[in-house]
Amino acid sequence: MAHSPTRRLGGSPFPPIAEYAFLSDCETTCLVAPSGNVEWMCVPRPDAPSVFGSILDRSAGGFRFGPERIMIPAGRRYLPGTNVVETTWQTPNGWLIVTDCLVVGRWHRTAARSKTHRRTPMDWDAEHVLLRTARCEHGTVDLSLVCEPNFDYGRKPESWEYEGDGYASGIIRNADTDVTLRLRTDLRLGFDGRRALVRTTLKEGDTAFVALTWRAHEPMLPTTYAQAMAAVDSTTEFWRQWLSRGMFPDHPWRRQLQRSALALKGLTYAPTGALLAAATTSLPETPQGQRNWDYRFSWIRDSTFALWGLYTLGLDYEANDFFSFIADVCEEADDIQVMYRVGGESDLQEQVLGHLSGYDGATPVRIGNDAYKQRQHDVWGTVLDSVYLHTKSRDYLSERLWPVLVQLAESAATHWRDADRGIWEVRGEPRHFTTSKMMCWVALDRGRRLAQMRGDLKTAARWKTVAEEIHADVCARGVDERGVFTQYYGSTSLDASALLLPLLGFLPASDDRVKATVLAIADELTVDGLVLRYRTEETDDGIGGEEGAFLICSFWLVSALVEIGELHRARQLCERLLSMASPLDLFAEEVDPPTGRHLGNFPQAFTHLALITAVMYVIRAEDAEAYARPSPST
Ligand SMILES: OC[C@H]1O[C@H](O[C@H]2O[C@H](CO)[C@@H](O)[C@H](O)[C@H]2O)[C@H](O)[C@@H](O)[C@@H]1O
């Protein structure tokens, strides 16, 4: 390792998943360990091979900037309203503040157009720079910089060389991945093979910066601390300006709502409008387990649900770009895939990286995701629901998108009777999943509403007939003897995705079957009150081992409990879930109920989008209850 090992509970060299900070410029993302080591970064795209991969193997590269010898910071926070992280360090002789961000600046491409951007240019753009600044606040601090990339997921170490005169700039290249990294600092760099190093002592008031870029042409690196601080300021302004467009209640949970919104925005890929499911691959869903997947792609389901979360907060611009992304990927195709790469590419073939030891020994490490080939019948409904939601409030539907939507509704009408792999994309045999059929109903229900809005009454009537047929079928075959909606036709197993029934308006929350289903899930599909997707021992998902409680399902339960009038129970669960957030208010995909440890990829859009909906459900219900309550004077 590039630095002395951190003392950790349990002796693992890997920080707990929840302790990473997440940075983004809406193009590239990275994770910073509490030690100040960047342990995950893939460039130039989030699905490209990593240059810093020590989250998956301690030899796969990292970039530390922090005090010598001290690895546990005194405190860390996001600058409010931003994805800029500030770390405060206490050392034996002084105090240091380090600020980290992926720089966003004003749109600067004037002469030549971008080769990757397909969406309308905004005022801001990623500068493709990871920037780290340091300021000694009190006393003296021995500062250390160790930048040790290892290209291609740790398979291609290269050596640094100086660039230009003096000690301020270095360059390192890998021909196979076609990535060149440049480092610039106002300190003196030295090189030791693949490591770029700085050792210096800062006195009170001293400052320093280091900037790393992967931009091949016209790298935009600061040369002075003042320029570096200007870049931090513009990045801060970008995030705050973006957040200001949202509507956040004046409520104690506003902080969590804003962090979730910022995490979702940070998972967008601005050049195409795609949205990542998470920033990482193969963070395990079971400690040392094999449920390790690559989430650095744009799932149609995860993305449209994320738009729902952002829409709830009044943040709806992202939807325009994502719908254009959908039009891009569907226009030339017969049907929609369940996921795409962020550039819209449709091949996500899965591979195992056998050379990596995995996070805390969890193997295999996978890249790509074979679920892309599956048939998952919720996909049509998730798009149509999302488009309907946004069209309803704007009274505008893109003419480019309509033929795509017709195709999606027709696919639902044609295939709803077929078995599929379901919303959880299980790797077992296809089944007649109840939620998949329900989502086909959503596709035709929202499709007929959209057709009506366009005045196409004939199509609307035809889709309404199919929607009614699906509805009747689900109610007849998706319910068990207890009157509870089950995982698939003919089974008695529970599935947390049935919580979507009231949330998507399939049946009113007052319906006895809905109430029975929500309560059965709350009472029988939980561990310590936290919701499982399904019981792994009952569901053939094609993978061995257990998994943690799924946070999206636990937040869905909060919303569903509100729907069925169980506000007190909903509030309690919501409070408990929020208390399980990471120190920086981020969430992975799952938690281990007994320990509260985060499991799975991080940060995970699913969790943050469901958090937003659940918190807003509780706040709105509490407001309604307060207004309904007679005032003390009456
Ligand atoms: O359960 C096995 C499957 O697990 C992953 O899927 C999960 O993550 C997706 C991305 O967030 C989400 O859309 C899906 O609903 C989840 O079940 C994995 O991606 C699959 O390959 C795997 O079969």
UniProtKB/TrEMBL annotation:
GO terms for molecular function: alpha,alpha-trehalase activity. Residues 9-103 form the Trehalase-like N-terminal domain. Keywords: Carbohydrate metabolism, Glycosidase, Hydrolase. The keyword Hydrolase applies. Residues 256-615 form the GH15-like domain. The keyword Acyltransferase does not apply. This is Trehalase. It comes from Pseudofrankia inefficax (strain DSM 45817 / CECT 9037 / DDB 130130 / EuI1c). The lineage of its organism: Bacteria, Bacillati, Actinomycetota, Actinomycetes, Frankiales.
